[in-house]
Amino acid sequence: MKRQRLDIRDWEAFVTLTRLRHFGHAADELGITQSAISQRIAKLEGDLRLKLLIRSNQGVEPTDAGRALLPEARALIAAKRNALEAAAAIREEGARPLRLLLSNAIIHTAILPRLRHALEEAQGSAFQVDVEAADEVESSLASGECDLALTTLPMAREDIEERLLTRLPMAVAVPADVELKQVHIKTLCRHPLLMVPRDTEPDLFDRLLVAARSAGQVLQVAQPIVAFPSILAMVAMGKGWGIVPLAMKGATPDGVKVLPLQMREPPVIRVFMSWRSSNVWAGKLVGALKSDDYRPD
């Protein structure tokens, strides 16, 4: 049997005429003449070898065959509309810079050089890269103010996709005059502790809590703070010791240094690539950045 090459415009005429039940009204909506819409219906019926519409006192009525095909015809029109909308979104995305937000916890890690290389390889696409606290990154991505994000906060949202990229070892920010090379959990428990909230990093919080209990100590959490630079600033002000990524040892304010934790398995935080589901660049960046062997600079 010879394959028929059906024209979607004929299906649009059929669906519109079935809905409006009047040739003149359907022609006006489609922006064509009544003669043209009659020709499209005749062509569709000829291609299908089925009678789809009949005239009645109430106007135009679908036949049994027409009613049976109507759901498929509507789905075909909807598919065309969705495809056009998707194409428009892709054109719009390609015409504007994609906003990429970085959590401040990762800007001193080995992820950054790889990210720079990946963005340089993304020829034909412009990226606007900014750095924010992790909670601000999460808020911007959820609201659509940014397109992609490298963040330490996982997002449990249906419209956001994410992939785990790596894990960063954590350390202790202390006053610069502390004469230690590393910090034991017993020493840590003697000082007010500044760290991210438990609901943000439950694994980090719980591992420190278990380590303290195993040593017969109690953590003195003085203040939960989401942004790691803010933790460093509070340490500089003498408000306590802070838990920050070891990679931030090269970004401390005056009067603060970062020491490793003396634990068999130091706690870590996870780094995710998160993006809105429609973004076409995310998969390429994930492939360029994902690794199990990142080390702090």
From TrEMBL:
SUPFAM superfamilies: Periplasmic binding protein-like II, Winged helix' DNA-binding domain. Residues 6-63 form the HTH lysR-type domain. It holds the Pfam family HTH_1. GO terms for cellular component: protein-DNA complex. It comes from the Bacteria. Keywords: DNA-binding, Transcription, Transcription regulation. GO terms for molecular function: DNA binding; DNA-binding transcription factor activity. Belongs to the LysR transcriptional regulatory family. This is LysR family transcriptional regulator. It comes from Denitrobaculum tricleocarpae. The lineage of its organism: Bacteria, Pseudomonadati, Pseudomonadota, Alphaproteobacteria, Rhodospirillales.
